[in-house]
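User: Let's play a game. I give you a shape written as tokens, and you guess the letters that built it. Ready? Here's round one.
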């Protein structure tokens, strides 16, 4: 599998895993959703917000439309419903982005400025790998919390995505 095919699968997996996680979050109460539960971004809401922030920040860098933030906990949506809709929409943006990707582009260097104003330059393909890994990391954190709260554990491993995709 070439890099482009891999990233197409990862973008679609990212979208699919968001959908699974968000479906499992719907039943939790608002108090549980906003409760500080020891996560780096405090709550399920804070962590989902950071997940959206990361997706928006990186997508903006890739497409040349930087996103202004006040910090890594910058809140885009205080409403649970608006945040969930934005996560779904942003995940679809990654699917669209990688649909236009080429093997050559994966090897090109992307220069960007960090949230702290530091300039970096890394290969596009490696940065895309980071984007999808970042999503997996934070979905896992949220999954652990909702499971601790007594709700069913979402099955979001890549293998479940591949099995689900092969069924359809």
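Assistant: Ready! My guess for every position:
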């Amino acid at each position: 599998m070439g890099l482009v095919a891999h990233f197409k699968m990862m973008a679609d997996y990212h979208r699919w895993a968001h959908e699974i996680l968000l479906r499992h979050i719907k039943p939790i109460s608002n108090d549980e959703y906003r409760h500080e539960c020891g996560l780096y971004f405090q709550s399920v809401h804070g962590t989902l917000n950071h997940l959206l922030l990361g997706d928006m920040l990186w997508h903006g860098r890739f497409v040349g439309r930087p996103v202004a933030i006040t910090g890594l906990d910058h809140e885009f949506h205080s409403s649970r419903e608006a945040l969930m809709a934005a996560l779904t929409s942003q995940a679809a943006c990654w699917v669209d982005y990688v649909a236009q990707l080429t093997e050559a582009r994966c090897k090109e260097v992307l220069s960007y400025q960090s949230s702290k104003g530091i300039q970096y330059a890394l290969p596009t393909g490696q940065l895309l790998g980071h984007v999808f890994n970042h999503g997996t990391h934070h979905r896992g954190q949220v999954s652990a919390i909702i499971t601790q709260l007594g709700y069913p554990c979402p099955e979001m491993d890549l293998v479940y995505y591949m099995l689900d995709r092969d069924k359809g």
